[in-house]
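Risk register update: the risk that structure generation would not scale has been downgraded. Supporting records follow, first protein first.
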Amino acid sequence: MDAAIVTKDSPLSVEATVARLRELVEAAGMKLFAVIDHSGEAQAHGLAALDLPLKVLIWDDGGLTRVSYAAPAELARRYGLEQELAQRLAGIGALTDRLVSAV
């Protein structure tokens, strides 16, 4: 496991742990944006559901809109991905280039 990832064991099932997290987030007055179960697809390919499928974060940085994502080469290195899959992930670069280009 990557040292940048903290992992803790839950005594509850996955479903019960998700429900408990929802309760705790709500009780703390925080916002839960979404619960997305993409682990099945990642597991089918022997990958980590934390990073895959790729995610794009669009955010405001003091009035400047930024677009961020995990570097495909780093994900390929981290998970020892086959070259074919790594090349498919690299498409995020061209997609985001089109996203941020002048319309």
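Supporting record for the second protein:
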Amino acid sequence: MEKGTRPHILVLPPPSLYHKLFSAETDARLRGLGTITYNGDERDLTSAELAERIGIAEVIITGWRCPKFTDEVLASAPKLKLIAHSAGSIKFMLPDDGLSRGFKVTTAAAAMGVSVAEMSLLMALMLLRPIHQLDAGMKARGDWKDLKARGSGEELTAQRVGVIGAGHTGRHFIRLLRGMGVETWVFDPYLTAERAAAMDVERVKSLDDLLTGCRVVALHAPSTPQTYRMIGRRELGLMKDGAILINTARSSLIDGRALLDELKKGRISAALDVFDEEPLPADSPLRGLPNVILTPHVASHTVNTHFRQGELTVDEVERYVRGEPLKYVVTPEMLATMA
């Protein structure tokens, strides 16, 4: 944009979500970059309402549950130059040719990788050394000797860990593993040999190789047509006895019925943060299995992550205002592998 001008910035997240993502300091930075119009309604706008408000906006800040930018909306936005998305994927927001309409789109997906990676690491450690079960036994006044006998566990550093997907989150998870000296295998069709060498990981050629060769398997792939149900009954059968499966990515990556059947056998364990039906039904059989750790889709939900999303979003708006290259711009090529 031209130096010395202040863009009109339209903020779509409702107040409660906005203040969850944008700290007072980050909000002050944003106010210094342009003329701001906030969403004063404690609800999500419709596309029709967005079309009515978008006319003078040069920059739009979007977030979870924002309305779709339909053809009608974009036709009402002659000044639009930047959509700065304060969350992850932007696929649901735009028409198929949205990225060719003369404006740029950025995403704060990079902000979420750290917390999801840490949750995956925590889940692996808990399944190898069942602290949650020992804690429950202690608080239930269980027998000391019995609990002590069950508490030996295993070390993560003694395992070979397989990572499916080397995107933002997968790379953070890999860094945590390599920092602990864990042997790490990765399956990702888009991972080059050069990048694998730089990350100090073994790049496996097939998913089957990873499933048969690794004791712990963590899913960090996006939800795309190519990854839908990539872990089915056959793939689960390839996993070692005593294997651990961790899914903090998307439930669509796994055949849920096949996983439930395998878990009921007690042959493998799992840690799941995502489910085909959310909230997870109260009568879900998963809730009664001792070899499963369940969390309510919270892997990315930390105070730090949410404020980092806001910071990355305002960073991009600031780069735009200064005429600098955007760091997290979404390209048409990226859409093929984006969730």
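The chain has two domains: 8-111+303-337, 113-294. On this basis the risk owner (M.S.) recommends closing the item.
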